[in-house]
Amino acid sequence: MSNAKVVVYTSQNCAQCDQVLAKLSEWDIDYEERNVSENRAHFKELQSKRIYGTPATFIDDEKILGFQERKLKRTLGISYEERFLDKDAMNFS
């Protein structure tokens, strides 16, 4: 759907992280997950960006902290109307 490079910094037991990943999957967005709990290098990368919490989503050069569905959609270029489409109802076979 989107050609943007999406990187999501996550940590274990993070409900907002799970929400971000679920939405990206729901919208068919390819992303790279970097779990800071499992990989110290990812933790240091995030700190070098002066960010100390998760989730932190980078879409190309834009950062989105926490779970902000509207901002994720806007940044990814997903229109508001797509939220209301029922993909299963569109199968006419």
Concise summary:
By secondary structure, this protein is of the alpha+beta class.
Tell me what the structure shows.
The protein is an alpha+beta fold. It has one domain (6-90): Glutaredoxin (3-Layer(aba) Sandwich). It has 3 helices and 4 strands; from the N terminus they run βαβαββα. A 4-stranded mixed sheet has the order 2-1-3-4, with helices on both faces. A hairpin with a 2-residue loop joins strand 3 (56-59) and strand 4 (62-65). It is globular and about 35 Å long.
For the largest beta-sheet, the strand count, sense and barrel status come to:
4 strands, mixed
Distance between the termini: 23 Å
What's the pLDDT, averaged over the residues?
Answer: 88
CATH superfamily: Glutaredoxin
The number of helical runs is 3
Structural class: alpha+beta
In terms of DSSP E residues, the strand content is 15-25%
List the helices and strands and how they pair.
Layout: E1 6-10, H1 15-26, E2 32-35, H2 40-48, E3 56-59, E4 62-65, H3 69-76
Descriptive terms for the model:
Glutaredoxin; four-stranded mixed sheet; alpha+beta; 4 strands
